[in-house]
């Protein structure tokens, strides 16, 4: 039987994940130091790795195994600095000895890293395995003579002699071979060192950064032409325009359909079919200068499904004129065609016009482009650029007050129970219900009272009806309709302020038919309902999140103010796009187009077919009413061009490629910003760069004084503060507004799909995401970092490590105490100088998507799978249980923090609550003495003495807590009453 003192404790350090960067370059060089019973041991250093894998065993001697449950193992992770012997703290874990198992029953555990102090910035997890063994491990070890800090040792195992020994017992280090990857606890599936190659180092990747470009805006002309004032934010592109209008005097015997072909080299455009007698097409074809491979352009007129042409004309490109807007359009002319024999007398005539122009030409938007040569006729509409105006949305307020003289459908059944009467309001697909007016008497059924407000979203032109029905709950899931009323939305009164509209009584009918032919309704007895209806135009209908909304104006146009500036955007092109679909099995391709949304104006560029580096060079303009708004530009892949095209991983929907948000208030006035923005998308495999979008932006202000005045105005219209809406109500109405917006835009031609509207309006931002929760938490930590840094500075001064600074601060403190009227001017003057000093380092580029801020540089696969899961979930019960347990773990930490904050607040309340009579007596007595003291001694003297006491040198201080802090910590809290 082996004695207990021969047993050893083995701490197997497997790996860490998502550590905090500490070297100033976006990464860390971590190592682990383990301490047990005055024995310390450290692992190797993993240089520049935020997801290090060690797989090392640290072996400690155990003096008494019986004391193991009463001991603890402390695991600290540090970052090794390049210079000096200092190190950065990355996190710690304290493992109780009661959780240490015997060898053979050990399991791999994942521990979240804890802070060393309240002000530490810590993140990440570490995987450990702790167990007791009786094996003599030293017999199988190969001793290392070095210090054991080489990153990748070539030996398979060995002893690290660099352990920091503070006792008599010498610990042992065992370094295992790398071996296979060990999978951590199922709650967290680690991605190893660099998940799928995305952000393995956690540093600032140049690939994901914003880049400034130098395009030749305005065509690079030395002299401004007539289009420079309107198309100076794009590169001028030269096109050959051919407008084919009609034909006549064709020599045709059959009654077949006639069409025209326009041919330029290898590119060919075909018109729609016309009648055989006098065919008329009126179509425009645009051939890019890059596609011109011939010196002539030919126009053929032929019958459908026949190769022989009826007539032909051609133009020499060197003789075609150039048109520059605002010149008038070139007048079309009749041209005599030659037949297939070359004779001009029998081929008939065709009316055409041919000219060279740029994308500033009026015919550009409606033209068939040479890049879309293989697009069928039914897909041509979705290729052209369009401008959409989103419908004007209104809030419909419905106040259901009461009902009178209701008659139950089954009087016998109603006498056997208490009736439960409620009112239901419906507008389109939006349904809301009042509370149940439970009745204990006959009057409760016949005259229920609610007085409840309901809000709906409706769009102009008003095509919906408001239907209010009174129902009686007669069983589970069974409601009996006692009467309905149908009100057209067009007849409802509009209001711009909070003045109440006049309420009205409406007769309840049993049958309501929306048809025009059947209007018969049966009226029971004379039941009626009391309603107050209004269309509230003083609100702004929120269809976007308020954090990046593009419009804050109220619905009613009478309340609009004049615009304060103009936003001009040139959508130049994209580069390096990812292929999105397979085309006829011949390879991958992308048919990309852009959507830009600001206010009520949505613009859609033309679709550049089959190109991973599309060039749009289209310029658009918006009026700006508020500088603190955001313009959103999204890039999509068009899936409606060819039915034979296979979408990679998607259905018949336009695929998302990425989007860019730009806040106008961060732009300087009248400056042209030309940048390439990375298009970042979060996929189930991690964050991917889908390409780069090239934009040119200019924000021009009409009057700087008006813009500065805007900063003191409320963000939302007046009605949002006079009659505010609840948070849940705003979220529900935003969802309804998105549905109404998507339904109306889908009726345009070409339609904007629901997937496009949802992506542009961030309709899925309310879904739970562990990644977003972490990102928001670290945003909060970053906000508080300034206060934390100030506290550290004060603590540094109190420590007298730099006596000169401490003396200067103390003198300044005494000066401000003696002349308190200087405190506020001094603070404001300091803030002014600080702002002026930071002017040199102001941002010179627009903001863009930040993967580090979004917490997307290193992700758990399971967290990504959870974020992309549908709602409600489609995962198995075991997976849902695992995620629920993880959520409980996170919520438990939040619960502990909230409980600690509540404890401190309850201790403040306990000062005067007499829950602890002795503590309250001491506090009251101290307040009386302090009142007399403050009356007798000037306040500035008291503050000066307090400052001198607090900033006394450390050798005059006690290491014990102050009496006031000790007294506060002894106060009772309500935590004693918690179960």
From TrEMBL:
This is C2 calcium-dependent membrane targeting. The keyword Acetylation does not apply. Belongs to the MCTP family. SUPFAM superfamilies: C2 domain (Calcium/lipid-binding domain, CaLB). Pfam families: C2, PRT_C. Residues 1-111, 221-335, 377-506, 548-677 form the C2 domain. SMART domains: C2. Keywords: Membrane, Repeat, Transmembrane, Transmembrane helix. The keyword DNA-binding does not apply. Residues 143-162, 175-226 are annotated as: Disordered. GO terms for cellular component: membrane. Residues 194-204 have a biased composition (Gly residues). The chain crosses the membrane at residues 806-834, 921-949. Its main location: membrane. Residues 146-162 have a biased composition (Polar residues). It is found in: Membrane. It comes from the Eukaryota. Gene3D superfamilies: C2 domain. It is a multi-pass membrane protein. It comes from Macleaya cordata (Five-seeded plume-poppy).
